[in-house]
Amino acid sequence: MRKTEINKRIILSFDQGTLLLNGVNQDQLPEMSSSNFWMWDTRTGAWRCDAIYYSAVSKSLCEKFGKDFSDEVMKPQSVSFSKINLPELRDEQKEALESWNRSGRRGQIIMPTGTGKTEVALAAMARVKTATLIAAPVRDLMYQWHRRILRAFDYDSGIVGDGLSDIKPITVTTYDSAYIHMAKMGAGFGLLIFDEEHHLPGKCRREAAILSTASMRLGLTATPQRSDDLHTDLDWLIGPVVYDMPFHHARGSTLADFDVVRIPVALTDSEQTTYDQCNRAIQNYIFTKRKEKPGYDWQDLCKESGKEPQARHVQKAYYLKQSIENRASEKLRVLEDIFRLHKGQQILVFAGSNRMAIEVSCRFLVPTILSHTRKRERLAVLDGFANGKFEVLVANRVLDEGVDVPEAKVAVIIGGQGSTRQAKQRLGRILRKTGSTRATLYEVVCEDTKEVHRSRKRRKSDAYERTIHRRV
What we know:
Elements: E1 10-15, E2 18-22, H1 29-32, E3 39-41, E4 46-50, H2 54-65, E5 69-71, H3 91-102, E6 106-110, H4 117-128, E7 132-136, H5 139-153, E8 158-161, E9 164-166, E10 170-174, H6 175-185, E11 191-195, H7 207-210, E12 216-221, H8 234-237, E13 241-244, H9 247-250, E14 258-265, H10 269-292, H11 298-304, H12 309-326, H13 329-341, E15 347-350, H14 354-364, E16 368-369, H15 375-386, E17 392-395, E18 410-413, H16 420-428, E19 439-446, H17 450-458, E20 469-471
Parallel strand pairs: 1-5, 6-12, 6-13, 7-10, 7-11, 8-10, 11-12, 14-19, 14-20, 15-17, 15-18, 16-17, 18-19
Antiparallel strand pairs: 1-2, 2-4, 3-4, 8-9
Helix pairs in contact: 3-4, 10-12
């Protein structure tokens, strides 16, 4: 169709996280794109698509209709930093940044914990100098990004989350706040940075990427894989993997070398008896159910627990069994020995439950950080650990990923999941290189329990390849 036959102006605008296209008939739409992402909105009498397609759509319409096309989507502001105080990037960081730049400034950078992914992202911000939104999985990381941006650029960035809604050209947020508020702030940012990007593909959190018009996107993680395989969607949501640094390339150079010491412990007689009783109750129930319904699993049991007393009883048995593994009394005795062995050194203790973390804290009079610990207390504890006021810091999952932990070269795992991601993240907490000092990771595991299986699964990560595992 010739331009002279178009009887009204073609307008593209941003509306509630989508693109709204007016002035195009249905028979014209396929001429602009081979994609089928457009949907007809009968309420507005216009075409809609998700904002993530903005770059391709705008370019296609401009080429097709020229001056008859009007792009009314808000454009990102240029950002001028009063100062840029960034450390000189190491070779691998430079390579990661250049790879992202060559890939159209869209893509994922995968680097082990402690190798400086944040510095790469800050360098990218300094290079593109455009309005940027940084999304992090938790509030702690959001505030950490705020502090890092303030230190690097002397820029007080906006915050969206934790009860705050202050949108600026440079803004930090959480994934949950991002997808909730993206309908109003999805246009106007030129760069999206997703820290710990493996959280993004979740059912709701992916909206933080889909509802944004940002043409430049950067994902950061040490462990992109997800058990549900949704990490494959990151290629669409962010861009392809542009740089992937194997763990062994960083070990001993960028990261400290380390030893893994596995310490098996036994349950007490009473703990073992209760554990075995719980195990039999669970196995008998599942076996009986699978006779009636092949494939019956844990999710089915949880669904039935609200209406079937026996299912609820078995569910309680499972949690009691897990509690015995996490809080075995022998673990506390071993922990005391490790504290004596490394007296004067900074030690991180990773528990398998909040209750165990609190128990360690009370037993040894050491601070703990949990998910519900208030911001002021959390900062005070981390500062105290950094300046040597506290030699031991106990946590459950809150320090697993992203959060900067003051320098420590000793970590003790007394509980946790079978996730290789969690294992990699916890190991990364003690691998920041300091001279030639080796790090030591202790893994205290209850023998003759499922914890042995979880320990083996954790150590399948490439971070543990060619590692000498000592058993004491």
